[in-house]
## 1
Amino acid sequence: MTEFSVLVDPSAWWPGFERRLRAAYGAVGYPEAAAEFSVGRMRDGIAEWTVSEILSAGTRVGFVAVTMEADTPTGRIGDLWVDAAHAGQGHERAARSWAEGWCAGQGATRVAVRLVEPDGLFADYPVRGQLRMRAITAAATPLDGVTARPMTPAEYPGWLAAENAAFAADIVRSGAMTPDEARRKADNAYTELIPQGLDTEDHSILVLEHAGARIGTGWLKHRHLPGVTFGFSLEIDEEHRGKGYGRAAMAVGERATVEAGDAALMFNVFGGNEVAMSLYTSAGYPVVEETRSIDLPPGTGALP
């Protein structure tokens, strides 16, 4: 029988979790400095986590860690680990049920998990988002005559409104949030990310052109992680889609990454966007993290 005992002091859990996290980041190709930064950021946030031992006949066989996300009714499973000697004996499934019950007891209607490597235990949790990343060693050659220039102040308000609406719609389509939750998240995100608009430090907000005519836009944040540029969007305008410009837009992002002094480019793709997933795969951007979540059935109660 699997039992659970919440730890008052989680220090017995953290060193093993950190080792596993570092190993997973290394396996998927995170630059060393970016992995170190990500581990440190995780460490700073665990004060709000609840960590429980997983026990079998009084012997510790693993750990499960849970927390609640701020401002949404979403619980998160931060870690679920069973020692290899005790794997496959039902402890993993019991720990998942315990974690879902704990989240429900805190008022969660949804439970999410972030995976750095595949885990069949959460195969029935729908994919809500993926981080894709690859190393960029040299500035890409412009493809198909597509170039980029800085966005002008006159172009910025219309772009911002469209980006905000598209971001909220992507979140809703992925199933990660309700429309109201998604709108609030989008409003807060843009206020926090680009408070000075076009003058916000370390951001490139671009207009993509072909033969002197606009075909799309791009938005990248340099040094999002040490040595890593994050591509918030490289968007081809609707009337120009289907003409092969998607890969050319990514080449623009890769060139901007190198010119900013970063060594890797990362993108987020929302669940349900198979077109973008296929593009990133064909361009050599593997999945380095994946977020999955499930809605809890009504009446799910906290487990002891």
## 2
Amino acid sequence: MRVSQCLTAIAALAVVASAVPAQAKERLTGEAKLAQMLDGRVAGKPVDCLSLTQIRSSEIIDRTAIVYTANDGTLYVNRPSGANFLDDDDILVSEPRNGQACRIDIVRLIDRGSRMPGASIGLNDFVPYPRPPKVAKAN
């Protein structure tokens, strides 16, 4: 009887283990995730600096870019030198001067798990992607 219980438990574990990969969400590449975020938006003229008062949040896109979200919904994409060091699980640390994030600034990455310092990377131009215009509904 004990052997049959073990076999039942092993069979149950095998079923659970085989179901996990099917349910696991496919991880997008950094470029694919960025393209998804920018879908329907058109790039504007790059700017050198962003006022921190207009920035609501920032997000690291793995090995690709840093996306800053402005209060008005505009996404500002910065493809820094050393983008290959960007890890979407890292913590972004910046030390802005004069209340602005600028293309000449250096930002640091910190590993979220170990809290160990990672790479320091230089920012480039901020490319704005405003919200797409709303399409009027035909009646």
## 3
Amino acid sequence: MTQQSRPNQLFRNLHAKIAAIPMILTAVVIFAGGTLWTIFYSFTDSGLLPRLQFVGLAQYDRLWSTPRWLISIENLFIYGLGMLVFSLVIGFVLAALLDQKIRFENTFRTIFLYPFALSFIVTGLVWQWILNPEFGIQRVIRSLGWESFTFDPLYNPDIVIYGILIAALWQSTGLIMCLMLAGLRGIDEDIWKASRIDGIPMWKTYLLIIVPMMKPVFITALVIIATGIVRVYDLVVAQTSGGPGIASEVPAKYVYDMMFSSQNLGQGFAASTMMLLSVLIVVIPWAYLEFGGKKRHG
């Protein structure tokens, strides 16, 4: 690139760059500034109000020795693993079925996607009713003659997180299905024709050819699911309020309770910093795969 062309590159789309300045300043001041402010005060003994009384890593030591936080991390791991696996698998299978150009495709697509239009609060309340043993699934099955049937995950501390997982999958799988369907519709029809001519089974075509070609779609879906996992809060509050006891506690609820109920900002800031770290663990590899790979091959 010549020296004369560099100023031309700088002033290209100048109006668009000027219009983006407020958004950039907002992101820097509010998001970056708020993040640094939170990390800074996580090393203080802040209570109801922030105060500059530094305690080093004491808040983090206390955090990782608190049973409630450890239970929330365990629940997040179970919930996250289930969401990642089942959302991707169910979403891809539904997309593959719809990609067969079945009748009433638009109707089925709307039905599967509709739960995503609901808020997590509404979803939580709906599934709280469905999973209630007094008038939900258990009551219906017993009324059909299976008197010994038991299904009350929201009232069992050992499996309550799976009841929350069911509700989350019901709401979120439709979005993943639409992403996968868009990716499948972008596959060249000649690939399917060639696989049929070569006698390759359909499942093997999906597994060995289609899925590798849809790598960007899977990465995008993975990031969307992962960020939703870390910030899960309202679904838990609506279904169980963290109960029974603290059996369904999650990190986001722990942060909220520490900051607003217990009035312990320092502990809440430390917990939210750990949540930020978990987000970075997801975002940084995604950014490398999405942009670093393109730059390397470009």
## 4
Amino acid sequence: MAANINLSFEEMWEKIMACDSKYDGLFFTAVKTTKIYCRPSCRSRKPKKINVEFFHDIDEVEKAGFRACKRCQPKSDHSPQIELVRKVVSFLVNHYKQKLELQDIANHAGVSAFYLERQFKQATSETPRSYLEKIRIDKAVHLLKNTDRTNLEICYEVGFQTPSNFYKVFRRLQNCSPSEYRTLIRKEMQQ
């Protein structure tokens, strides 16, 4: 996969202890006792130093009889974090109308709520909640442009539980109220 890098055993050991993702794909950590290999950034429990062997090539480590870690998925081109974010975003887009708690999203993703929020924010600079609010407001904008539904109907249609929260989030993201937005859109269409 990658050319040999000039790191000693001790340096590679330090990288896996620090879960340093900058070295993902440059070398792999194989654990002799479990016959599993991982990325340097894997968050699984760390093995004893004497049970570790390092490989620079994924084919080489598999030829030696090791299998890929299910947690860090070293065979994947994407980091597990990216896969987690994709899974969560598709869930949010498909279930935006429902009342969703962070725990519901975490259950779907198969991780803890704390881990989900931390990983999602690290990858997107947003929380799952703020991302969900953006999806809901995008849907509301579409409905305001293309339907004659009332603001209250749209509020509940896009998954908000209370009108006050809908108006607050809409104003924060669009810099105007839903009514002001609809008026602006109608003026633009008439010109």
